[in-house]
Design a protein that fits this description.
CinA-like protein (chains A, B); five-stranded mixed β-sheet; 17 strands; MoaB/Mog-like_dom_sf (chains A, B); 25% strand; alpha/beta; 40% helix; Alpha-Beta Plaits; homodimer
C-alpha cells in the first residue's frame, strides 16, 4: 500500500495564528483511497527549506502532495522550487496563459504581468485546471514517485483534488481500503487501559491501534487495511471485540459518541429525567448535558449552588449537615442530589461538590477532592474522587466522573 | 536571529480528526523570544520516519523542539529514537523513577510497570521536571544544536516550557526582541472592526497587525520587533493607542484577559455579587464565570431552568407572563434576571432565554433568537439578539453577549 506526505507552503502557516487545515481534509480523502499519510510538513515561503523538504519527502514517500505557494506574487515560490528539485526547466504554456487572460476578462479586471508566472509549467508536468482561481495545479512523475502540486485556497484545492487528482491516484492505491473504529473509555487512566489491552493489540499489525488521552477520557483508534470494506470490518471486529471484552463497561462509546450523548440516549430510552446540583463544576455538567440537541426532553433543571446558604435554600441541604461534615463531603453530595431530584421531580438527581482550587485545599481536604452523589427513586449513593491537575482540568474531570456515574447507574 | 523547527509526534495527528495545536502556542512563545519558526513537521509513532525527520531538522536548524510520544505505552517512541539519533544510550534515572512512583502514591493509584519507561533518559541529557504528569522532558546539546523534547499534553508541555525551557533559550536568542499585544473586542464583527482600523494599521509595517475571529470574539494581535523591549513597546503604544481610540468601549481586554476574567475583576472591584438564570445556554454562563479562580467571592448561584415550570418555581417568573409572551421573550428574560437576583440576594441578576436549535424555531421566533435580561438594584433591562450558526455557536455567542452586557453595565 502506498503512503503519502503532505507539505503545506506559506509563511502565514508558521505564525501563532494560523494552522494548516487543508491537510486534514486531504488526509480524509487519501485514507478513503487506502493511502495513509506518514508525515505532514509546514514550510514558509523559503526556498532552501522548501527545496530540502521536497527532496526529503520524495526520497521517503511515493506520493508527495503540496498545497500553496502558487500565487502570482514574488513570495509564491512553489513552481520555481519544484522545477529545480525535479530538474526540469519551466516552460511558458500558451494555452494556460490564454485561460488566465480569459478569467481576468470575464471578471472585467486587468491582468497584472505577475500573473503570467502562473502559466509557467515544468517540462513534462501535467497541468491540473483550476476552475475557481488562476493558478493551475501540477502532477509530476519521476519513476515510481508522484509529486502533486495544489493551490492553497480550499475552494480551489478541494475541487481540483476530487475532480482530477482522485482519478489519478485511484489506480496507484490498488485495491486497499482503510476502515477505522473508535472506542471511548471512562473510569480508567491511559496506562491502566494500555496494560490491559497491550497483550491483545500488540499481536496485530493490522489493524493498528492508537491510544489517546483526550482531556478527560481515553480514546482508542483502530485502523484496518484490507482489499474490501467487508474484509477490513472483519479484521476490526476480531480485534475490537477482544478489547471490548477486556474493558467491559468502561467502554462507553463505540461509534464516537460523547459521554453526554450516551447519557442522553440512555435517559431517552428509559424515559427518565435528570436534574443537576453543582458546586465546584459551576454549571459544567448542566452545560454538557444541554450541549446535546433535544436534551430539553430529559434535562429539566440545574442549580449551581456555590454558597452554603444557596445549598440550603435551593437544595434543602440541612445547614447542620454542612456544619457537621463540611460543604465538601459525601453527606452533602448525597443531600444535594436528593434535594434537586425532589424539587425538580426528576427520575435522577446528581450532586457534585469538591475543591477545584487553586485555593481552598487543606491537608484533610486537598484540591482535587470531589464527591459525586446520585439520587434515584429508591437509592442515594455517592463516590469520592481525588482528581489531578489544575482548576480547569479538575472541573473537567469532575464533570466526566459525574456523567460517567450517571451512565453506570443504568448498568446496574 | 536563530530559528527553530517544531516536530509534533503522534499517529493521531496524522488522522483527519486531530491537528497539532501545540505548535501554535510554542510559536508564540518562541517569537516572543525573538526566535522564528522555519518548519513544522508532524510524524506518527513511526520509528524510521521520526528518525529521518529528527536528523533532517538537526541538520537544518539550531533549535529543534519535539512534542509528544513520551507516554508510558508501547507506541511512545520519542525517547528511544532521540537516543538513537543523538547516539547516546538510555539510562534509568532512579530519582525520576522515585518521583513517578510518588505521583502515583499521592493519587492512590497502582503504578503499572510501563511507567518505568518514563524514567529512561539519554546519557548527558538534562531532564525537565513535569509537575503535571509523569513524563519528564529533555534538553540535549550537540555542538551548537539544541534538541528540546517536550510531552504532548498542553497542560504538561506549557508550564514546562515557560518555567524551564524559556530560561534555557533566552541567552541563545540574541538582541532582537519581539513584543506582542492583544486586544479583544466584543459587540462588533470582524469586517466591521477591520474597516474601522485598516486605515490606521496599514500605515505600519512594524508592528504587524493580525485580525482573528476567535469563535465568539474578534482578536487583534500586534507584533513589534526592536533591539529592546522598551523600543518595541514604544512602537506598540503608538499603533495600539490609535486603534483603542477608534474601537472605544468595544475593546474589553488589553492584556489577553478573557471576558469572564474582566467581568470578575469589575465585580470584585465594586464589591458586587452576581447570580445567573439560564435557559438556552444551559449553564454555560455560570460555567464561564466560575472558570475564574476566586469566583466564589462574587458568583453566588446559578439556575438552569429549561422547563417553564422550573422558571416559575425556581425564579418566580409568573406563569401568565410565560403564556402571554412565550418563554423566549424580553419579558421573561427580565423576569428571570429579577427573580434570580431577588432569590440569591445579589447585586446583579442575569437572565438568558433563547432558541439554540436545531429544532424549536418558528418564523416569528427563529433559531438564534436570544434575549438577555439584566437586573440591578434600581433598573431591569434587556437586549435582543439574532445570533448566527449552529447550536454550539449560538450557545457560545449567547454566553458572550450576556457577559458583555454585564461588563457594559459597569460603563454606565
Amino acid at each position: 500500500m502506498p503512503h503519502a506526505e503532505i507539505i503545506a507552503i506559506g509563511s502565514e502557516l508558521l505564525t501563532p495564528f494560523r494552522s494548516d487545515t487543508n491537510s486534514l481534509w486531504l488526509t480524509a480523502e487519501l485514507n478513503a483511497l487506502g493511502i495513509a499519510v506518514r508525515r505532514k510538513t509546514v514550510v514558509g515561503d523559503d526556498e532552501p527549506f522548501l527545496e530540502e523538504t521536497l527532496r526529503d519527502a520524495l526520497r521517503n514517500s511515493p506520493i508527495v502532495i503540496t498545497t500553496g505557494g502558487l500565487g502570482p506574487t514574488e513570495d509564491d515560490i512553489t513552481r520555481k522550487v519544484v522545477a529545480r528539485v525535479m530538474q526540469r526547466p519551466l516552460v511558458l504554456q500558451p494555452d494556460i496563459l490564454d485561460r488566465i487572460r480569459h478569467q481576468f476578462e470575464i471578471r472585467g479586471l486587468p491582468m497584472s504581468p505577475n500573473n503570467e508566472r502562473q502559466a509557467l509549467v515544468p517540462r513534462d508536468a501535467t497541468p491540473l485546471s483550476n476552475d475557481y482561481g488562476t493558478a493551475p495545479g501540477l502532477i509530476l512523475r519521476e519513476g515510481d514517485r508522484q509529486l502533486i502540486v495544489l493551490p492553497g485556497p480550499p475552494r480551489e484545492m478541494r475541487p481540483m483534488f476530487t475532480q482530477q487528482v482522485r482519478l489519478h491516484l485511484e489506480p496507484l492505491a490498488g485495491h486497499v481500503r482503510l476502515r477505522t473504529r473508535t472506542l471511548r473509555v471512562a473510569g480508567m487512566g491511559e496506562s491502566q487501559v494500555d496494560s490491559l489491552i497491550a497483550p491483545i493489540y500488540t499481536r496485530y499489525t493490522n489493524p493498528t491501534t492508537t491510544i489517546l488521552f483526550n482531556n478527560t477520557e481515553v480514546e482508542l483508534h483502530f485502523t484496518a487495511k484490507a482489499p474490501s470494506d467487508d474484509e477490513a470490518d472483519t479484521l476490526l471486529d476480531e480485534l475490537v471485540g477482544q478489547v471490548e471484552d477486556v474493558l467491559g463497561a468502561n467502554v462507553f462509546s463505540h461509534r464516537g459518541e460523547t459521554l453526554e450523548q450516551i447519557v442522553g440516549l440512555r435517559l431517552t430510552v428509559k424515559g427518565y429525567t435528570i436534574a443537576t446540583a453543582e458546586s465546584c463544576t459551576g454549571g459544567l455538567v448542566a452545560k454538557r448535558l444541554t450541549d446535546v440537541p433535544g436534551s430539553s426532553q430529559y434535562f429539566l433543571e440545574g442549580v449551581v449552588a456555590y454558597s452554603n446558604a444557596a445549598k440550603t435554600r435551593l437544595l434543602d441541604v440541612p445547614a447542620e449537615l454542612i456544619s457537621e461534615h463540611g460543604a465538601v463531603s459525601a453527606e452533602v453530595a448525597e443531600a444535594m442530589a436528593a434535594g434537586v431530584k425532589a424539587r425538580a421531580g426528576t427520575t435522577i438527581g446528581v450532586g457534585i461538590t469538591g475543591i477545584a482550587g487553586p485555593d481552598g485545599g487543606t491537608d484533610e481536604k486537598p484540591v482535587g477532592l470531589v464527591y459525586v452523589g446520585i439520587a434515584g427513586d429508591f437509592v442515594v449513593t455517592h463516590r469520592k474522587f481525588i482528581l489531578p491537575g489544575d482548576r480547569d482540568r479538575i472541573r473537567h474531570l469532575a464533570s466526566q466522573v459525574a456523567l460517567d456515574l450517571v451512565r453506570r447507574t443504568f448498568l446496574l
